[in-house]
Amino acid sequence: MLAFLLELLLYSGQYGIFYLLMNFVHVGFISALTETSHEALLSALILQCFLLSRYGSDPKWRLSLSLMLPIVYTGVEFFESPAGIGDMGLVFFWIFSVVTGSIHAFALWRNTPRSRLLAESVISFANIGVFVFTYFYLDLLYSWENEKITGQALQEKLSIMNFSGAFRDFFQDPVHVYFLIGSLVLAGSIALARSRILHLQDRVTELLGMYVDSSIRDKILDTDIRHPLSQKKIATILFSDIRNFTSMTERSSPEEVVRFLNGYFSLWDNAAKAHGGWIDKFIGDAVMVIFDKGTIEGNIRSALACSEEILGKLPDIRKGMFKDGRIGIGIHSGEVIAGDIGSTTRRNYTVIGDTVNIASRLEELCKELGMVLIVSGTIYDADCNVSSLESLGETSIRGKRDPIRIYGRRK
After folding, report:
1. What is the C-alpha to C-alpha distance for residues 63 and 73, in angstroms, rounded to an integer?
2. How far apart are alpha carbons 248 and 251 in whole angstroms?
C-alpha cells in the first residue's frame, strides 16, 4: 500500500491527480467524473500506480509503464476530438511522464548515489512544476471563459501553439510572478530535503553493510521488524582461530594488536567474498564464515578454497607480533537455523545448531592435534579435492551421542 501511495502522490501519478483536481474545480466533482475522458484517466491512474508499485524497480518497466497514463488519455482525447491532442495540457502531460519516467529509469539503471540524487531533485521540481502548470491552465480556462470564449474557439486557444504568448500574459500579474518564484523556492527546499533523506538512507545502508554481509543487510532492511527472518537451510560453516593469541597481545601494544587484527580480518573478509561466503562474526581473534549461497557441494568447495587461500597467505603476514603465528580452521556442513536472533531492541542475523557447534569444535581440535585444518566426514565424503587430508579417526563432540569421522592437515 505504501509503494502505491508513493507512486500516486510522489512519482508517476502526480500530474494525473492535479489534472483531475483542476477539472473537479472547473466543472464540479460529479460532472467531471461523468466525463468519459476523466473516468478513463482515473482508471488508468490507479492501474499505472499499482503496476509501477509492483514492477517499477525494473528500469524498462519503469519507463514504459510511466507512459501508460498519457497514452490512454491521448487515445480518449483523439476519440472525442482529434484536435484535442494538440492541447497544451496533454502535451505537458507527455513531457512530465517522459521526463520523470526516464530519469527514474536512469537512476534505477545506474543505481548510484549520484543518479538517485539527480532523480529525486528532478522529480521534486517536476512535481512543483505540475502544480504551477495546472494552476496556469485553470487560470486560462477561467479567463477565456469570462471573455465568452467556448467550444472550438476555446480549444484552439488552449493549443500548445499559444502557450508562449499565454504564459507571458500570465506573468503580467505580479501575483503570478510571486507564485512562480515561491514555487521554485519550495521545489528547491523539497529537493534539498529529499536529497538529505536519500543521503541518510545511503549512509544507514553503508554502515549496516560494514557490520553484516550485504545480502543479509538487504534482507534485514526489507523485513518487517515484527516478523524476524528465520529459516532452516543447509550451510557450510568455517571457524578459524589464532593459536596463542593472548600471549601475543601481552607482548604487543594495543595499537599494534588492533592494526594486525584489522589487516588479518580484512584477508578473511576478502577471501570469504571471493568464494561466495560471508562473515557471520568476529569473536576476539576468531572468525566465523558461512557458505550458503550455492549448492551443498558448491558451498563445501568454496569453504575449502577460502581456507586454502588464507593458509597460502599466512607466510606473507608472519611478521611483527605474528612472526610465529599459526591458525586453526574447522569446517563442517549440515542443517542450520538461520535467523534474526536477539532481544526486542538488539538483534543479530546468524546461524545456530549442531552444525555450528561441530565446526567450532573441529577448530578447537586443531590445537589439540597439531593441525591447521580439520574437516568432518561430511566434507570429506563430498569428494571436493580433499584427498590430501589424512584420516584422524573418530572423535566425540559435546552434545552428540555418536562420534564423527574427521580428517586433517598439519601445515
Report:
1. 17
2. 5
Cell numbers that stand for 230 in this block? 528465520
Rounded CA-CA distance 329/18 in Å is 64
Q: Return d(Cα 83, Cα 165) in angstroms, integer.
A: 20
Backbone angles phi, psi at 409, to 5 degrees: -140, 135
**Residue whose entry in the numeric block shows the C-alpha cell 541518510:** 200
- Sequence-ordered list of residues with C-beta below 8 angstroms from that of 290, at least 6 positions apart, any chain: 235, 236, 237, 238, 277, 278, 280, 351
Task: Provide the whole-model pTM.
Answer: 0.64
Closest CA to 235 of 306, 305, 297: 297
Contact 242, 285 (CB under 8 A): yes
Cell (9 digits) for 123 = 522529480
Written as nine digits, the cell of 73 is 488519455
Of 99, 75, 77, 80, whose CA–CA distance to 15 is shortest? 99
Question: Contact, 383 vs 390, CB < 8 A?
Answer: no
Q: How far apart are CA 73 and CA 39, in angstroms?
A: 10
Rounded CA separation 174/177 (Å): 5
Residue pair 4/53 in contact (Cβ under 8 Å)? The answer is: yes
pLDDT tens series, the chain, 411 aa: 788 988 888 888 889 898 888 888 887 877 777 787 788 888 899 999 999 999 998 999 999 999 999 998 888 888 877 777 888 988 999 999 999 999 999 999 988 888 888 888 999 999 999 999 999 998 888 888 888 887 788 888 888 888 888 888 888 889 999 999 999 999 999 999 888 888 888 887 777 766 666 666 766 666 555 555 678 889 999 999 988 888 888 888 888 888 889 998 999 999 999 999 988 888 888 999 999 888 888 899 999 999 999 988 888 888 877 887 889 999 999 999 888 777 777 777 788 888 999 999 999 988 888 889 999 888 888 865 666 788 888 888 777 778 888 888 887
Q: Is the CB of residue 176 less than 8 Å from the CB of residue 170?
A: yes
Kind of pairing between the strands at 286-291 and 230-242: antiparallel
In the three-class reduction of DSSP (H, G, I as helix; E, B as strand; rest coil), residue 11 is classed as coil
* Contact criterion met (CB below 8 Å) for 365 and 371: yes
> What's the rounded Cα separation, in Å, for the pair 131 and 15?
8
CATH superfamily, with its number, for domain 227-409: Nucleotide cyclase, GGDEF domain (3.30.70.1230)
